[in-house]
Design a protein that fits this description.
seven-stranded antiparallel beta sheet; single chain; Immunoglobulin-like; mainly beta
Length: about 160
């Protein structure tokens, strides 16, 4: 999983790559890009962003179908409400030869610094869910845990 904050641009570019027996995953085909709730119940990629030192954070979900969700929270799993974006994210997905890749261009207002957590929820063909992240802070996966935001991003000049 990678995240890029291109110089001179307000948004983020994300790339999620899964390699291995990806044909065992339920990966929906591309569809109508739209805001959709409940994406975490199936295969999707997630991004959590917080301002360093703050309790508030944002959650983004991106599905292979092009559907997406954006939420803001006042604290850990508290004060959840829809997050308005300047434009919808652009999501594209490609599956070939044991590799699944999901690319996202996410428009965001400029900020000087962010802490980020990258994660994925994978649904297999038997209906089992698995939870992947750059870091799991506790014994059980909890992407909302502030300690899961292990990437520190500084605004490029």
């Amino acid at each position: 999983m990678s995240l890029d904050w291109p110089a001179g641009e307000a948004g983020l570019r994300l790339q999620y790559v899964m390699e291995g027996e990806v044909e065992q995953l339920r990966i929906p085909p591309a569809g109508e890009p739209r805001r959709t709730d409940g994406l975490w119940r199936a295969t999707c990629c997630e991004l959590f962003l917080r301002t360093p030192g703050g309790a508030a954070y944002r959650e983004f979900n991106f599905a292979p179908s092009g559907e997406w969700a954006a939420w803001q929270f006042t604290g850990r799993r508290e004060g959840m409400r829809p997050l308005e974006l300047p434009a919808p994210p652009r999501v594209s997905s490609a599956l070939k030869h044991g590799r699944w890749q999901l690319d996202v261009d996410l428009p965001l207002a400029a900020e000087p610094a962010l802490e980020a957590g990258l994660a994925a929820v994978l649904l297999d063909r038997q209906g089992g869910l698995s939870y992947w992240a750059l870091a799991h802070a506790g014994e059980r996966p909890d992407f909302h845990d502030p300690a899961s935001c292990t990437l520190r991003l500084e605004r490029p000049a």
